Q: What sequence folds into this?
C-alpha cells in the first residue's frame, strides 16, 4: 500500500497538556482523506505538524516517503495548504498575492494565476485589494493559492468556512476534479460531515487529541447499520414494550421520543403491531441506514463517555 | 537572498517608505538650515548658540536628529516587515514556503537594514552638503566642523550610520519577544536617549567604545532573533 502521508505515534504537548497523543494516520496516494473531529479535537494541531509549522513532541510525520524534520523544506514545494483561516497581504490585490506565492514557491507557468482565479470565480475581483474581499472570497482565494502550483498533496483545514452552499459545491467539485484529473491527494478537515461524506474516500476521526478510527467510505457503507427509527408519544411505555414484550436489547433513545432499534430480527410491521397493542402512540416509523454523521456522532459519543468515566 | 530581499520590498510596498524618507529628509534639511542660519540656537541673552558643552558645532545636531529619525523609522519598518507578520499570521504563510526560515528572517532584516542605511547616509549627505552650500551665502551660527573633501568624513559617516541602523535590531528583538510593534518603537526611543542624550557633561555619544559595543550588541540581538526560527513552533 502506497501512503503519501503517514504519522507515527504523533504527539504534541504544550504547557504540559497533550494537544494530540499517539496519532497514527495513513493517507493513500490519490485519495481524498476526510479528517473529522469535534471542535478542539486536535485536527488543526495535526495539520500544523504535517506542514512543519509545529514540531512534534514525539513521534514523526512521513510525507512522500520521507520523515519530516525541522529542516525539511523541499517537500513543502510539493504541498499546498490552508491552515486555519487563509491569510493574505491585505493591501495587495488577489492577483499580486498569487504572484508572490508563485515567486516564493519557485513556480513559473504562464497563465497559471489567471487559471486559478478563473477556477474559483475570482477573475473580476483579482485586481482588487484583498482587504475589500468578503470572507467567502478570501476562502476561495486561499484555495486558489493552495492549488495554484499543482501540489501533489493538499492539506485543507476547514476550507469551506464562510462559503455559501453554491460555493461549497464548487469547492467540492474542484477537489474531486483535482483528485481525478491530476491525481492530487487531498486531506481535508471539516465539521460539515455531509460535505466530507460526498467526496472522501477515507475518513479519519479524531477526538480529544487521539485518533479514534480510520476507515474507508466503502467500508462504512458496507458495514453501516440499518435500523428502525420510531418516534412515539410515550417513550417510557415504549421502552418497556421494546425490552420486556419484544425482548429487544440493541436499541437506544435518540432524543426525547425517538428510538433507534438495531436488532435485525424484528420487522417494522411486528414493531408497529406490538406498540399499538400496548397503547403506545406511534408518531413516525421507518427503516433507515446510518449516515456518516451517525457514525461520527457514535464514535465521538463513545469517546466522551470514556473520558467522563476516566 | 537578493531575490528574497527584493520580494520583501515589493510585498511591503517600499515605495511608500521611500516617499516618507524623502519627506523626513527634506523636513530635517529645513530644520537644520534654520538652526544653522536663522539663529534659532542662539541664546537671546548672550547671542551665542545655546548648546550643550561639546555640542556647539553643526555636525552634532545633524547626527542627533538624523539618528533619531532613522532609528524610529527603522524600528517602524522592522515592525511592519517582521513583527506584524507574526501578529497577522502572514509569517505562517511565509514559513509554509520551501525556504529556510532563517533565510526568510535574514532577508527581511536585510531588506530593512539596506533601505534604512541608504536613506540615512543620503539624508546625512544632503544635510551636510546643504549646510556647506549655505555657508557660501551666509556665516552659520554654528561652526562647521567637517570637510566633505576628506575621506575620513565619509568613512565616519558610513560607520556611524551602520551602527545607528543596526541598533534597530535591539528594538526588533524586544518587539519580537513582547509580540508588540509598540514595544519595538518604545525601545528605539529609549535607545536614542541612551546613545544621544546627555546628563550635564556626561554623554555616551562621544564615547569611542560605545558605538563598537552597540554594534556588537545589535549583532547578537539580530542573531538571537533568527537562531531559533528553525526549531521553534510558530504560535
A:
Amino acid at each position: 500500500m502506497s501512503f503519501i502521508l503517514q504519522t507515527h505515534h504523533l504527539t504534541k504537548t504544550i504547557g504540559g497538556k497533550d494537544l494530540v497523543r499517539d496519532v497514527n494516520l495513513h493517507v493513500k496516494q490519490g485519495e481524498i482523506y476526510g479528517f473529522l473531529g469535534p471542535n478542539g479535537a486536535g485536527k488543526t494541531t495535526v495539520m500544523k505538524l504535517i506542514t512543519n509549522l509545529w514540531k512534534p513532541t514525539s513521534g514523526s510525520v512521513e510525507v512522500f516517503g520521507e520523515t519530516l524534520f525541522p529542516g525539511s523544506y523541499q517537500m513543502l514545494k510539493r504541498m499546498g495548504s490552508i491552515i486555519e483561516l487563509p491569510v493574505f497581504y491585505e493591501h495587495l490585490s488577489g492577483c499580486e498575492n498569487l504572484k508572490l506565492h508563485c515567486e516564493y514557491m519557485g513556480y513559473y507557468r504562464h497563465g497559471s494565476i489567471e487559471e486559478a482565479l478563473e477556477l474559483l470565480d475570482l477573475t473580476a475581483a483579482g485586481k482588487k485589494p484583498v482587504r475589500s474581499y468578503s470572507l467567502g472570497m478570501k476562502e476561495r482565494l486561499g484555495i486558489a493559492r493552495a492549488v495554484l502550483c499543482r501540489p501533489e498533496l493538499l492539506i485543507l483545514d476547514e476550507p469551506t468556512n464562510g462559503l455559501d452552499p453554491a460555493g461549497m459545491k464548487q469547492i467540492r467539485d474542484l477537489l474531486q476534479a483535482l483528485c481525478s484529473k491530476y491525481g492530487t491527494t487531498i486531506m481535508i478537515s471539516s465539521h460539515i460531515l455531509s460535505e466530507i461524506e460526498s467526496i472522501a474516500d477515507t475518513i479519519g476521526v479524531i477526538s480529544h487529541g487521539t485518533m479514534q478510527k480510520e476507515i474507508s467510505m466503502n467500508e462504512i457503507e458496507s458495514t453501516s447499520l440499518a435500523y428502525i427509527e420510531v418516534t412515539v408519544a410515550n417513550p417510557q411505555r415504549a421502552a418497556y414494550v421494546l425490552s420486556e414484550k419484544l425482548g429487544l436489547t440493541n436499541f437506544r433513545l435518540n432524543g426525547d421520543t425517538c428510538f433507534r432499534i438495531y436488532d435485525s430480527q424484528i420487522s417494522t410491521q411486528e414493531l408497529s403491531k406490538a406498540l399499538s397493542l400496548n397503547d403506545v402512540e406511534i408518531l413516525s416509523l421507518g427503516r433507515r441506514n446510518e449516515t456518516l454523521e451517525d457514525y461520527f456522532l457514535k464514535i465521538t459519543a463513545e469517546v466522551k463517555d470514556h473520558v467522563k468515566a476516566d | 537572498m537578493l531575490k528574497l530581499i527584493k520580494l520583501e520590498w515589493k510585498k511591503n510596498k517600499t515605495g511608500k517608505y521611500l516617499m516618507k524618507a524623502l519627506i523626513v529628509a527634506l523636513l530635517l534639511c529645513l530644520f537644520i538650515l534654520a538652526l544653522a542660519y536663522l539663529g534659532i540656537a542662539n541664546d537671546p541673552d548672550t547671542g551665542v548658540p545655546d548648546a550643550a558643552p561639546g555640542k556647539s558645532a553643526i555636525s552634532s545636531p545633524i547626527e542627533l536628529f538624523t539618528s533619531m529619525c532613522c532609528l524610529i523609522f527603522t524600528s517602524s519598518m522592522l515592525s511592519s516587515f517582521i513583527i506584524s507578520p507574526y501578529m497577522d499570521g502572514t509569517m505562517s504563510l511565509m514559513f509554509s514556503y520551501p525556504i529556510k526560515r532563517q533565510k526568510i528572517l535574514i532577508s527581511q532584516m536585510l531588506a530593512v537594514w539596506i533601505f534604512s542605511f541608504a536613506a540615512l547616509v543620503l539624508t546625512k549627505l544632503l544635510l551636510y552638503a546643504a549646510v556647506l552650500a549655505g555657508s557660501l551665502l551666509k556665516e552659520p551660527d554654528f561652526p562647521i566642523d567637517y570637510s566633505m573633501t576628506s575621506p575620513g568624513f565619509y568613512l565616519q559617516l558610513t560607520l556611524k550610520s551602520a551602527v545607528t541602523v543596526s541598533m534597530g535590531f535591539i528594538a526588533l528583538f524586544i518587539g519580537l519577544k513582547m509580540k508588540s510593534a509598540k514595544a519595538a518603537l518604545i525601545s528605539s526611543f529609549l535607545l536614542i536617549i541612551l546613545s544621544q542624550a546627555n546628563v550635564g557633561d556626561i554623554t555616551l555619544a562621544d564615547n569611542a567604545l560605545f558605538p563598537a559595543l552597540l554594534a556588537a550588541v545589535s549583532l547578537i540581538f539580530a542573531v538571537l532573533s533568527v537562531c531559533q526560527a528553525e526549531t521553534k513552533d510558530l504560535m
User: Anything to note?
Assistant: The domain at 3-221 of chain A is CATH 3.40.50.300 (Rossmann fold). Residues 165-182 of chain A form the longest helix (18 residues). The radius of gyration of chain A is 23 Å. The mean pLDDT of chain A is 83.
